[in-house]
Queue: 2 jobs
Job 1
Amino acid sequence: MIQIGKVNTLKVVKQLGSQVYLGDGRSARVLLADKKLPAACRPGDALEVFVYVDAEGHLAATTQMPKAQVGEIAWLKVISVNYYGAFLDWGLPKDLLVPFGEQPYEMKAGQSYLVRIFLDDKNRIAATAKLDNCVKEEADGFKAGQKVSLIIADKTDLGYKAVINHTHWGMLYHNELFRAVKKGQKMEGYIKQIRDDKKIDLTLHQPGYGKVESLTDRILAELKAHHGVLPLSDKSPPEAIHEAFGVSKKVYKQAIGALYKSKRILIDDNGIRLV
């Protein structure tokens, strides 16, 4: 079934001059709206295309890819504002509309906002900045230690809210962030825990001993690359440790502790060295 507002893999079913029609063998044909046709345009060729509804209400497709699809959340810039609403740059020639009714506050040209892309009641693609209406607070289908995709949202007194997998809210706490983040930034993270109130705490570091094992290999590699000596001990500043390895001081101490117990390194106040 052809999905509007998403990337579909469709086959060329017919070509009439410069007009190319695509299909999936089950649904209605879709006109390829690109002015410049791709090389693979013979009947039977498969194309990855983004499907939308054109101004006349017909299905159309393009090989150009938007910055986000229906059901996804993205950090997009307002190009213009008129009496219909705000128009966003989302990577396609026709800008994406955020109707005034989908704006919790007045959106301004030149500013960027987190929005979710959706289909309206006429299957037209639009966006909303009212994320609390479509992003869930309570955990559903997640488990501690799970790797997830994150989009950084608003800064709070506790830390940063983040959107998990385009569907749920989570929290990254200030005291566990060892690098700068900014609103709209995409990154990978992990579910730290599901709280009793069903809300989600996040971390940028892989939970459990697996991350320690991975870090020990990196530490050994760095030691070998620096003549068996590194000026980072268990007493070094957290900022220096994070700059070198991108982890917290706690994780670093666990890793060098494991290496010390296995008699692979020695630790002193000035750093560590290979045995």
Job 2
Amino acid sequence: MVGMVLIVPPQNYFENINDYKSIIDAYQHLSLTFESNHLWFIEFLIVFMLLAVPFKSGLDSQVGKAFIIRLERLALFKHGLFSLVLVVLLLRCGLKLLMPAQDNSIDNLSVSLFFLLFFMAGMCFMSSPKIWQSVTNNRSINLKWFIFSTVLFYGYYFKPDISEYVPLAVRWQLWWLVCTLVSWSGLLVLVGYASAFFKQTPKWLHTANELIYPFYILHQTVIVALAFYIVQWDASIAVKSMSLLLGASLVCILLCYFVVKPIGIFRYLFGLKSKRVVYKSLSQQGAASDASV
């Protein structure tokens, strides 16, 4: 709600700047329209977290445990976990036949169920050390699948015009196919190599994990605002692109670290825990670490 009221309106202002007298005028017209814009995924996560409760109960049941055992057996094969991409493909391509739109509304099941499947796959993987170990052990195999999928993806993206020979519906299905292959193989590769090489949590990652949420809320508005001015520079596309990337990253980091993180009201508005809760949590982690040593 805070994001839709305070953070999203400036995007519409800079994108349609001739429609408003000033940014204050834009807020007067836009703040109560509750347009989610880039915050659509937060709505998804709210629904996913509610669904995670019964799904976790299901995993803890006898049926759920039997399902995890089957996944563990599949994970024993080198290509086992990657083969689950067939399930993702059936869901993605099948639902796209019924709901071809790509709008990010929760009732567009061709989008929301695709993300939900990844969310629930993560819950299944984390519920079994054997599956997690398989992701680590087979990371090189999955890397080959990722490279293969990436070649297919860019090969299709830069293909010659085949519209005279292949119907539009088929071309879209091929597009969803290559996108899904890259998504699933990329997930397995990232998790596999991360779990293999990153055995300890550095101190900076605690801060980064805490601030990633306000960073996400802020980033697109900052990008649009900076891009409005950077695009007018008399410079090359490369210079503009790098300036926007570095400038937006720096502004978001500074806002998160020096405004959101230290000020209580902003912590609350941007969804962070209070300082007291964070301090208590870190103290308990430190005590547990000392006890283990």
